[in-house]
Write a structure and sequence with these properties.
Elements (H helix, E strand, L loop, with lengths): L2 E5 L5 E5 L2 E6 L14 H5 L6 E5 L1
Antiparallel strand pairs: 1-2, 1-4, 2-3
Length: 56
């Protein structure tokens, strides 16, 4: 099983398992559905760079 956590540019953390996105987790702190992303980052102008962490 391959797991990646992708901090998407200006968006949520994406948890990917075996090449398929399973969860989108709030990274901006503004979601009304924490810990999950509800798209608030777009409305509040959240800015952050992309990073990828691969777990084995």
């Amino acid at each position: 099983m391959q797991i990646k956590i992708i901090a998407s540019e200006n968006g949520p953390y994406l948890v990917e398992v075996d090449g398929r996105v399973r969860y989108a987790l709030c990274r901006c702190g503004g979601s009304n559905n924490k810990p999950f992303c509800d798209g608030t980052h777009k409305r509040v102008g959240f800015k952050a760079s992309q990073h990828v962490i691969e777990l084995q």
